[in-house]
Each structure stands twice: as C-alpha cells, then as structure tokens.
C-alpha cells in the first residue's frame, strides 16, 4: 500500500505540479474501501518486478447510474515508463470490464500536454470534453471577497451530512439543473436526481467518513430551492477541499445566486476549518458564466483537463486484444492484496 501511495504521489506531482499531495493515511483509507463513494465498486491491480510493485491500477464501476461505464486509473513508476507496464495493467482492466459486462471507458482527469494525454490517445481514448480547473488560494485572499449579498426575495439554508426532510424533494429537483451545463461531445449523461438517489449518495459519503456540505438558496415566495452548491471535505486533509456541483435552476438565473451561495459556503468553511488553504473546482471550458462567478470569488486558472472516452472494444483493439468472449467474473480481491 505504501508503494502504491509513492507511485500515486509521484504521478500527482508530475501531472499536477503545486497540487497538494494526499497523505498516506487518507490514501490508504480510501483504497481499502471496496466502493468509491462517487464512482461505485472498485477493483485494484498491481504490476510487480522482482517482488517490488512498479505500477498499480484501479477501475471503478458506477452502481447507481452510468451503468454502461467503467473508470480506469493507471500509475507506473517513472523509471519503468515506456516499457509496456501501463498497457499491461490496462489489458487486465479491459478483461475485467468485459467480465463485468460494461461497454465504455472514461477518464475525467487527463491533463493536456502531458505524457498522460499522449498515452490516453495511444490506447484508443478520445477527448470529448475540455474542462477548466480553477484553484482558490484561500490564505492569499482578503475574506471580504466572500461577502456577496443574497438577492432580495431569497434566503439561504445550509447543512452537512443529510438534507433536511422538509427540503429534500426540492433539493433533488434543483440538483437536476446541473444537466443544463455544457458537456462538449461527451456521452456521459447525468442521471436524474431523486430523493432516493440523494439519500443513497449521502449514505455512501457517510461511509467514507468525509463531510459533505451544501448551501442552497430558497425562493421565499414559492419555497422552491433555486440554487445549490456542494463541497466535500476529507477530515484527513483539512488543507484542501473539493467543490462539488453548483447549479442554479433556469428560472432563477442571472440574479447572482451562484455567487451568493458559493460565497456563503466559503464563509462557513473558514469558520469551521481555519487551516484550509485551497479549494479546487472544475468547470467546462465553455461555461463562461460559472468561470466568471468563480473568478469573482478569487479562483484562478490552474489547468486544462480533458475527459477522454472510448468503448471497451476500441481500447482492446488498440492494445492488440482480441474481441474475445468475456472470461467468467473473478472474485474481488481484498483491497490489501493486488490481483495482477
């Protein structure tokens, strides 16, 4: 596990320079969980040379939506790059994905201009969307920047863990507004947010020990939830947290609600987490409105990141694999025991 953390850390430093690295305890806790709260069930693999781990890979299988898809990640020791280690691991993943009956692969964090982009294209993945990652350097900004007013006729509500029972129906409806965002040529379609899906997602996050927070704007006259923003906090990494979906319901756009709820979230975070140093968000590169809102709150451009997709058979063909009938599904190994 420690060797996998070393490989993960080296990859992060090369691909995302200046980005805070995940501490070992947080990484190990995440790897030992059989499910990724965002992407579902996860299988892990490792490559060995003379008994030492020289690469590892994971593949996640969404189990509440996106049921055609699988999400691979591959990490290889820098000294063993361009020796086929990554491709060998990806062949294991393709075989596993076939056995699971999934049809498509996607990777949402390929940085343009890196060796990772070159390799993704070489193994058959195609760029379908360009995202604009932004970073908020909290300690370098005057907190007054997060004193954005709440538009007249609206009030804010906030919670962690679980949406209040009296708001959960409206909250689920408002979350579906994220479906209006630009998605380029990606075929990763949003599934509908329902009360049941909200409660399942909350339970999944609770299982990880992370803190999931939301701030919403409520239209006082109708009681409608007009805007939503979420933030995920890993208690083991109080220096950084990750922005989740922000959405404003169509009929309430153009009023400044996006800025108001995101500013309120920052005030809440600073009150509870004084050691917070950075917040990361990503937005479609052609979503000019949300990029501008983030800039008003102090975010600066960090990197251009691509979503890359392909069918399992396209990747298999690029790797020289036959379109064979899937092998019988293997039993899942312990997260402590890589299987390849």
Descriptive key words:
alpha+beta; 340 residues; 12 strands; 30% helix
Describe this structure in words.
With 340 residues, this protein is of the alpha+beta class. Helix content is 30%, strand content 30%. The protein has nine helices and twelve strands. Helix 3 (85-100) packs antiparallel against helix 9 (312-318).
Q: Give the overall shape.
A: globular
Beginning-to-end CA distance, first to last residue: 14 Å
Can you count the beta strands?
12
Largest sheet: 12 strands, mixed
Q: What is the beta-strand fraction?
A: 25-35%
Uncertain segments:
331-340
Radius of gyration: 21 Å
Structural class: alpha+beta
* Annotation field: number of helices: 9
Into which percent range does the helicity of residues fall?
25-40%
Give me the side-by-side strand order of the main sheet: 1-2-3-4-5-12-6-11-10-9-8-7
Order of helices and strands: HHEEEEHEHEEHHEEEHEHEH
Overall pLDDT level:
90
Summarize this structure briefly.
Helices cover about 30% and strands about 30% of the residues. Helix 3 packs antiparallel against helix 9.
């Amino acid at each position: 596990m420690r060797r996998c953390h070393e490989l993960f850390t080296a990859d992060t430093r090369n691909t995302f320079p200046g980005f805070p690295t995940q501490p070992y305890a947080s990484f190990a806790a995440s790897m030992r969980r059989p499910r990724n709260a965002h992407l579902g069930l996860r299988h892990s693999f490792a490559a060995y040379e003379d008994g030492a781990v020289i690469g590892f890979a994971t593949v996640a299988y969404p189990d509440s939506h996106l049921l055609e898809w699988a999400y691979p990640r591959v990490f290889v020791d820098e000294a063993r790059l361009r020796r086929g280690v990554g491709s060998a691991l990806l062949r294991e993943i393709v075989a596993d994905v076939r056995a699971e009956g999934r049809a498509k692969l996607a990777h949402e964090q390929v940085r343009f201009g890196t060796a990772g982009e070159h390799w993704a294209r070489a193994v058959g993945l195609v760029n379908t969307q360009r995202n604009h990652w932004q970073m908020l350097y909290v300690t370098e900004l005057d907190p007054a920047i997060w004193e954005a007013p709440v538009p007249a006729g609206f009030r804010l509500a906030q919670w962690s863990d679980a949406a209040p029972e009296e708001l959960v129906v409206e909250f689920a409806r408002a979350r579906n507004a994220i479906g209006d965002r630009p998605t380029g040529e990606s075929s990763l379609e949003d599934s509908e947010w329902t009360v049941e899906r909200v409660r399942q997602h909350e339970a999944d996050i609770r299982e990880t020990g992370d803190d999931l927070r939301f701030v919403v704007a409520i239209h006082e006259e109708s009681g409608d939830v007009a805007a939503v923003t979420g933030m995920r906090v890993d208690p083991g990494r109080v220096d950084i947290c990750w922005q989740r979906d922000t959405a404003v319901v169509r009929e309430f756009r153009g009023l400044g609600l996006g800025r108001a709820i995101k500013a309120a979230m920052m005030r809440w975070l600073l009150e509870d987490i004084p050691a917070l140093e950075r917040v990361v968000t990503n937005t479609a590169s052609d979503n000019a409105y949300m990029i501008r809102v983030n800039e008003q709150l102090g975010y600066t451009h960090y990197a251009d990141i691509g979503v890359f997709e392909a069918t399992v058979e396209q990747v298999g063909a690029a790797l020289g694999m036959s379109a064979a009938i899937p092998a019988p599904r293997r039993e899942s190994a312990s997260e402590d025991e890589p299987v390849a």
